[in-house]
Design brief:
The protein is mainly alpha-helical. Helices cover about 35% and strands about 5% of the residues. It has a two-stranded parallel ribbon.
């Protein structure tokens, strides 16, 4: 008969006695913690971080028109698909003057996706003629 291989138990740990276990001697046991009773009538002081006064009620009162808006690639793609202008819908939504800001990374993404849009438009124009 062959001897069976023992598999390793990776998740098992060596079991240890808790310091509060009754089987330990009195001198080795951990003493129970004494909880301090708090008086509910006493006032407690807390340290709260100071926030700027311009951020009262969770919004910045120092922001004002004209708004500089960071435009994402998804916004531009949606406006192309819906055949909308970029600036006018922003102004209609916010009721103020808006200045769209497009980063270099967004321009690079648009240039990569532009090949798809250009190739599709050429095929459509060729089929009409």
């Amino acid at each position: 008969m062959r001897k069976q291989k023992k598999t390793r138990n990776y998740a098992t740990m060596k079991r240890t006695l808790s310091l509060r276990d009754q089987r330990l001697k009195e001198k080795d046991r951990l003493k129970p913690k004494e909880k301090e009773k708090k008086d509910p009538s006493t006032l407690t002081e807390r340290e709260v971080p100071q926030h700027p006064s311009c951020l009262f009620c969770q919004y910045n009162t120092q922001l004002g028109p004209p708004y500089h808006i960071l435009v994402d690639t998804n916004f531009i793609n949606f406006s192309i698909k819906a055949k909308l202008d970029l600036v006018q819908p922003m102004m209609d939504c916010l009721y103020v003057k808006c200045i769209p800001c497009i980063t270099d990374y967004v321009m690079a993404e648009i240039e990569k996706l532009g090949q798809k849009y250009n190739s599709g438009s050429k095929d459509r124009q060729g089929s009409k003629i």
